[in-house]
Amino acid sequence: MSLPVAPAPMPAEPSDARAPRAPASPVTPARRGVVELLHTADVLRRRFLLALAPYRVSLPQYNVLRILRGAGGGPLASTMIADRMIEQALGVTSLLERMDAMGWIRRDHAAPPGLLAYALAPAGERLLAQVDPVLDAECAAVMAPLPAAQWPELAVLLRVLREG
Predict the structure, then answer these.
(1) What CATH number labels 54-163?
(2) pTM for this structure?
(3) What's the pLDDT score for residue 114?
C-alpha cells in the first residue's frame, strides 16, 4: 500500500514574467507642495514634542494653556477651546478634566448649567512662564533659515491654505 504523494510544487515564475507596473504618476507641483507641507508639519511637531517633554506637558495640553491665556484670564467654554485647538481631536472634555485635576486650569463653577467653562490657573501660568522661553527659542531656530522679513508672508500663505 502506498502513501498519498503531495502534488509537486508549482515552478516559480521568473521575476520578469510578472505583470508590468503602471508608470508612476507625475508629481504635480501641487502634490509636491502638499507633501512638503505635511512632512514639515511632522518635523515641527516632533521638535516641539521634544522641547515640551522635560516639562511633562503634551502639545494638546500646551495648546489649551495657550488658548486660555489668550482669553485674557476669563473662563472660556470647552466648545470654544475645542474650536481653537491647533489639532482637532476627540476627547477635549476629558483633556480639560485631566488638566483641571493637575491644577493647570480651573473649571468655572459659576457657568450656566450644562456649560463647561475653564480658565487658566496660577499653576498653568507658571508652567507657561517656564515653557514660553524654550518654545520661543525653538520657533526662532525653526524660522532661522528664512529671512525674518519673510516670516509674516509665510504666516499669511499658510493661513490662506488652511482657510481655503
Answers:
(1) 1.10.10.10
(2) 0.78
(3) 84
